[in-house]
Design brief:
The protein is mostly helical. Helices cover 79% and strands 0% of the residues. The chain is built from six helices and no strands. The protein is globular and about 45 Å long.
């Protein structure tokens, strides 16, 4: 089964090799801010697909969002495990309690 960890490893490998034919390497070569903007574009496309009630488009755009999120994490040198750890920490309390703790 393919996982987000598998994708994160592939992205890290493409970052290391910097192959000219790699879309991932090209994105990363443009810097973290560029990668973040691409992520934003993909997030907007996902929202549009979700609002249009098109399941196939939602699935495709969600894949783009996850990929570009992992690219941004790579560009910022934030491991996926740090994000998973944060999610795990947050699940130890109710969502409303967790949100309130961030507002304090």
């Amino acid at each position: 089964m393919f996982t987000l960890d598998d994708l994160a490893r592939t992205i890290a490998e493409r970052a290391r090799t910097g192959e000219a034919t790699s879309y991932t390497a090209r994105l990363l070569g443009n810097g973290a801010a560029y990668c973040a903007r691409k992520f934003g574009e993909e997030a907007v496309e996902f929202v549009i697909a979700a609002a249009a009630d098109d399941e196939a488009a939602v699935s495709a755009e969600a894949a783009d969002v996850l990929y570009h999120l992992l690219v941004v994490l790579q560009a910022r040198e934030v491991p996926l495990s740090a994000v998973i750890g944060e999610l795990e920490r947050r699940t130890r309390q109710s969502g409303l309690e967790e949100k309130a703790s961030r507002l304090a």
